[in-house]
Prior knowledge:
Two copies of one chain form a homodimer. By secondary structure, chain A is α/β, with parallel strands linked by helices.
Amino acid sequence: MKFAVLARCLLLFLAATAIARAEDGYRLWLRYEPVADEALRAAYTQALGRVSFDLPEGMAWSPTLITAVSELQTGLSGLLGRKVVIDTVAESLAQPVPGGDDAYSIRLEQGSVSRVVIAANRDVGAIYGAFALLRQLQTARPVAELDGLAGAPRIKRRLLNHWDNLTGTVERGQAGHSLWKWFELPEVVDPRYVDYARACASVGLNGTVLNNVNANATILTEPYLRKVAALANVFRSYGVRVYLTARFSAPKEIGGLPTADPLDPAVAAWWKDKVDEIYRHVPDFGGFLVKANSEGQPGPQDYGRTHAAGANLLAGALAPHGGVVIWRAFVYSHEAPDDRHKQAYSEFTPLDGSFRPNVFVQVKNGAIDFMPREPFHPLFGAMPRTPLAPELQIAQEYLGGALQLAFLAPMWKETLDSDTFCAGAGSTVARVVDGSVDQHADSCIAGVANTGDVRNWTGHPLAAANWYAFGRLAWDHSLSSETIADEWTRMTFGNDATVVTPVSAMLLASRETVVNYSMPLGLHHIMAEGHHYGPGPWVAKSGRPDWTSVYYHRADERGVGFDRTAAGSNAVAQYRPEVAQLFGDPARCPEKYLLWFHHVPWDRPLASGRTLWDELALRYQSGVEGVRGWRQAWAAVAGRIDHERHAHVEQLLRRQEKDAAFWRDGCLLYFQTFAKRPLPAGVEPATQPLDYFVNFRLQYVPGDPAMR
Amino acid sequence: MKFAVLARCLLLFLAATAIARAEDGYRLWLRYEPVADEALRAAYTQALGRVSFDLPEGMAWSPTLITAVSELQTGLSGLLGRKVVIDTVAESLAQPVPGGDDAYSIRLEQGSVSRVVIAANRDVGAIYGAFALLRQLQTARPVAELDGLAGAPRIKRRLLNHWDNLTGTVERGQAGHSLWKWFELPEVVDPRYVDYARACASVGLNGTVLNNVNANATILTEPYLRKVAALANVFRSYGVRVYLTARFSAPKEIGGLPTADPLDPAVAAWWKDKVDEIYRHVPDFGGFLVKANSEGQPGPQDYGRTHAAGANLLAGALAPHGGVVIWRAFVYSHEAPDDRHKQAYSEFTPLDGSFRPNVFVQVKNGAIDFMPREPFHPLFGAMPRTPLAPELQIAQEYLGGALQLAFLAPMWKETLDSDTFCAGAGSTVARVVDGSVDQHADSCIAGVANTGDVRNWTGHPLAAANWYAFGRLAWDHSLSSETIADEWTRMTFGNDATVVTPVSAMLLASRETVVNYSMPLGLHHIMAEGHHYGPGPWVAKSGRPDWTSVYYHRADERGVGFDRTAAGSNAVAQYRPEVAQLFGDPARCPEKYLLWFHHVPWDRPLASGRTLWDELALRYQSGVEGVRGWRQAWAAVAGRIDHERHAHVEQLLRRQEKDAAFWRDGCLLYFQTFAKRPLPAGVEPATQPLDYFVNFRLQYVPGDPAMR
């Protein structure tokens, strides 16, 4: 074989392999590649002759400020290819920055040697200011924008919730095992913990609940508290505080008490001692997250006590230390025959006003469970005397896990921007949550993390955008999805417009596409049992009726959908009249929520002029076609981004198209048994009979609790 | 705060963090850093003006050769900092290279443009030759050594056995989850699979059993065979063939048959069809590994048939395709009251000669179970008509898992170099295994892998040395532990003698150190139940007597140890007389095996002149002191290797010292209750009472089958 010929085949082969790959995704959006635009780089270099931090006296020596300096040094070295002098201002101006503890403001001082000054009220503001400055350079913003750049979070506690088990599995996690290596801790402290805290801080997150809400009391034992402390020690200088889930029966399980009754003085004393012990290990411990009397978890109702009694028990122990309780409202009773949609509201609204001040009630975005689309939860706006903390899900439990593209900012915005009308028009969920509607001093938002120990953190390379987006929205819920997608894409793939434009467009379209191929027009909870990855509209038997699919879609020969109007479960009555009238009227109800609130005849004409059946079928088809379109768009950016991430996403999109078609075919064949109508033109017929889909079994799906 | 002061504290901080870390261990021993010695690099550059492959006609276009060229290109680019022209010789000399399919030989042709020629009989030999050439440069060997460098493996099948479950857990694995992402496959093909195959090929491994010997028939279903095929497609060009474990009851579990009786014609037909199906997916499939009628696994004895009947059933199906069966001899009966040490021998030796030619019997190095030290298994040399495949364990199930340093080459060499005397003096285990004693044409060796999906593959950075060492010994069992340790250290940390010398010394001492602090003087199987990580000499109740510790150490007021002489279980009689006489005589028995074969009085004087009790206590103490010494040695290389790996190992060694002291204290306190003698001078007393150690519970230890 001649060399020339060999060389030609090598070209292809070498492109596919490399011993040291540059882009394994580990760096997330903090890549700090050199600024590609020469003129812009020169302008940045000129402006950033020096960077000074301006903090009140006494803050200057903290590990947090040192961390801010270090991050800035690392970032600017990469972006500008040179070391930048970083110092603190000689004489602090000590002018307060508007916006509180976490706020920062940046000014640009032009001169013979220009400098940028980052001012903050506390050292942690220096961290956020440093990352904001770096983001400007990473996204190629004009130099002039640096002057006057300022930020302050609208919500005080911005948390990730990790559903990580002590065994290392992650409930609903598909990005590998847990990041927390409990067996090695506290002696072995993985450097990855630093990079986790860095990533969180870079998007404004300031707290992390380390373990699963389906809790294990072992985390509260002394050996584990030492491990937790080792993590907290790493996170502290990034302003990230540690929280834990508390298993309500811990006093019995690890405390040796005969009861966990919240009104038992011995139980209260045990929790007080335990909390004191925790604060000895972790002086800045954030507090407890609790799932109680929900899906089999123990709770105060085991003793005939209310959720408020349970939450107040823990809040009392935490209050002297400044800790909080985050008590989940995700409850639905075994016995209650009522629409599951209504149960949290029914159970919690009577308790409004009876919680201690350091209790948050954590409410999922919608009333069922992280579906691809839900109308906002009726609890928002219905508990004015209680701070409510939204629980969003970054892990895509019902949106394809770590294998499917679904950028979630539009979904979260849909909830946050919903108007509850609780204090008149403009009382959005976001304003309820940030405390501005009801004048709450403290505020909190949580996202169930999509992280794991795979090299790129989130499995799907594009799923990192959801971690990023959650942090950015937690900081400022007024940001648009478009802005966030643009930022993340630039930071992740560079500023080449021929990449940024199509990739951002894919991200922005993706959630609606997933809705279309899985649960369009307000359909919900029709996924397969257990793993939740694929379709299962035929699921009719389960541990309880409201774990089936037929409970939710109620398809019959007349039509499909859950009647939640006054003629049905009347869940709409839990909303304010303005909302209830909108959702409750099939003629006015937004089509995206139609089958959520109404049982609609197959032949009812929709806005498109098409019948419900035809529209439904075409939505499924459009979902599949959406993924197909991304595959083309993605193919077109080949060569403009690194091969490794490109190939990975390419493979994932191929899988997603296959899975989308599976959803379409399974659901349409199933609903067709009721609708008894042909597929409209343009909808590809299934290549397998319904039985194939019904009998198909995915095994060993990561994140399935059965694999715990 | 002034910049100078800030800068000083930054120095420390920046050393501890970096956004893009160069040395996360992912590259293993294939780092290809530039040759540090300028003169040597110049000499290499001169000699490697060009590299040519010399292969028989027809081999030149194969993906395997292209892979070899690619690896060489990548490696030389890194080592020499320039591209080297690589081609094939214009006219193949087609002179056979001694040593068979995998062999290579290298010659150096000096001239105006010097070149190196790598000759091989088959394309896979080009891979091994390429990695051998690179190893020379990585370890800074003189240029002249290139000429005449040649290699040929002594054993044909060199396998890793992965005890990986389809759930993603790894039995006895502590380096994260399984490398195989079954849920993503076959659509998503992790580039890491390429790097896995590359690492295997670089040390001469040519086969991999993907799944756990505690088997799951699902791997043999069509969806999983498609996933297996995707992996095999990646591994193929590196010469790595895929094998699977076969669950003996698969015909019932996935085949719908009422029986798995090996003599049932329908069962035989099912296996034939299944094997044909496998070969349609994986044309170069290697064969089956089977654990049958052992620790609850199904097998032929469920139907009153022998292991030979079971193995021959599968071998018959595989034979037409060239596949093999590897049938494990790790069996011990629930009912058999005999010394567990004796049972595999008793069960298998009568079957010698009754296996089909394509069956290997896979035998652990010792008769119990991968203890830190075992005398060689008496089956070696006792089944001349059956090729025996040693099963070694790279994962350190009983040697501290992924948290403790234990370089295993000396342990494996101890077994391989043991003389069985089966065909006279010099009939070492290695020569039995490589086929030279009994003239077997095929040969096989397997190591239970220590890999997982953590970034550095093996958890402990130094544990990669065991993967490396297993491959090198599988290729050439005559290599010394010293040579292997030296090679690996140079390839992993560079050629600085002030690093290589102390790190190699640590490696070489480590296994004996672990033996000393855990099971010295022939003690065995006295570990904690379940996870096997810590001490448990007090374990007296378990699922069966031979899962307890007291069964093995038999401590009483007279002494300690298992009498396996004629006066006891007479296990020594399973060895040839030369060996039996040595092991059976307490005066001649090597002290390292003393308590394995003898119940020895506490006051018996040993070679040191000390009593058994004093010697035992001092051995435990010396184990702890050994680890302490490494900590000092490791601290001394700080700054000479990258911070990240240094800090990681430093933390691990601190943990190991703590764990070693725990072993020492727990075991000595326990044995002291029988010996009733004081600790000799120099042995540190325990700081906790015996109860503390007995009641100590480690929870959620990775790799514990209870966490499956």
